[in-house]
Amino acid sequence: xxxxxxxxxxxxxxxxxxxxxxxxxxxxxxxxxxxxxxxxxxxxxxxxxxxxxxxxxxxxxxxxxxxxxxxxxxxxxxxxxxxxxxxxxxxxxxxxxxxxxxxxxxxxxxxxxxxxxxxxxxxxxxxxxxxxxxxxxxxxxxxxxxxxxxxxxxxxxxxxxxxxxxxxxxxxxxxxxxxxxxxxxxxxxxxxxxxxxxxxxxxxxxxxxxxxxxxxxxxxxxxxxxxxxxxxxxxxxxxxxxxxxxxxxxxxxxxxxxxxxxxxxxxxxxxxxxxxxxxxxxxxxxxxxxxxxxxxxxxxxxxxxxxxxxxxxxxxxxxxxxxxxxxxxxxxxxxxxxxxxxxxxxxxxxxxxxxxxxxxxxxxxxxxxxxxxxxxxxxxxxxxxxxxxxxxxxxxxxxxxxxxxxxxxxxxxxxxxxxxxxxxxxxxxxxxxxxxxxxxxxxxxxxxxxxxxxxxxxxxxxxxxxxxxxxxxxxxxxxxx
Length: 481
Fold this sequence. Notes:
By secondary structure, the chain is of the alpha/beta class. Helices cover 43% and strands 12% of the residues. The chain has a 7-stranded parallel sheet with strand order 5-4-1-6-7-8-9. A 5-stranded parallel sheet has the order 12-11-10-13-14, sandwiched between helices. The chain has a two-stranded antiparallel sheet with strand order 2-3. Helix 12 links the parallel strand 10 and strand 11. Helix 1 packs antiparallel against helix 2 and helix 2 crosses helix 7. The protein starts with 5 loop residues before the first helix and ends with a helix.
């Protein structure tokens, strides 16, 4: 069993104690403020636990252009009437890869294909512009909804009394959850909560119209457990909709979004949390303290990846290093040291985290010009894993995907390791000796830590698409129309 970060232990302890402040509402809000600020507090605690380096993010698009686009007619806008669909996939929209039929959402695409006539994709990001198009045509954009809501929110700011109430609740929560958090943390989280409260009622109103138009009975919502849209989950549940989150990346005992104390079982908070979590396999299900049902389904595109994997001896002489956004300088040092230990015929392919892609030059300048290092720009990680003989990383989900692809897997020693990988992949890489060991084992073909097939099935439950179809039919059969 992996260790649990101190910050997550603090969250669970507060929820287990169940003080009244957990159930206080911001003025006018239908749900308590706690679930909406919980993850922001968790992120502040994570930085204290393991000294994370902030990720450089790209600037957002032109707000006036987005507003004009939101007001213009569009076939992809959720305002337009459409057929009712029993199953709605509510996703961010960034988990896409090119396919012959268009941009395919690899997170939920196989699940959509399992029951296409009953499904619709609703994505927060704009629909792609021509000539690109979604592979699944009933894909509607929620980005115009958000843009219109933001415009309305600017015309209706919160009252000073409401802002003061939010700051009071957040400050008490911050100071009660963990003594390491400061007044500066409380002020930053309060600012974000106030901005969210300005936006919330306008998004709720428009989102409610979308739900009334589509009338789903089952919504699979990406990132639902993070709490950002707790009021939208409550809104859906009030309409008799079952809200479910499909796992999208690493989860475990140190992921705050999936580990809760006893208060989460109380109806005031449970109404803001998904009814069920669908995991990639039993390995992930065992590692969380989730207040709803937890069901292992699998990840269909992993099966597509493994079906297309070539034998190890036919792969290029490449090692894939994957980022998890932590310690860019240390990861740069390790990548360069690995190149120096490998024969000239070998290449180290460096894969930035998706959150880093827009700023690779700023975050990893030394890797751009280093001979023997290639920056991996593949949108689909499967393309990268097919070419890799070994994968090296800190805590990325790609390490777990590499097990299914037959790659040798090496985890880097770091403050994150006890919480995110433990000893699953064998001895951790530490210092120059560890880097030389990786180079020697990969080049010589030895594999002292090869994962057993049984482990791969524990991590990635087989037959995911069919598992999902049977699960969805069972849930639709038992839910209220």
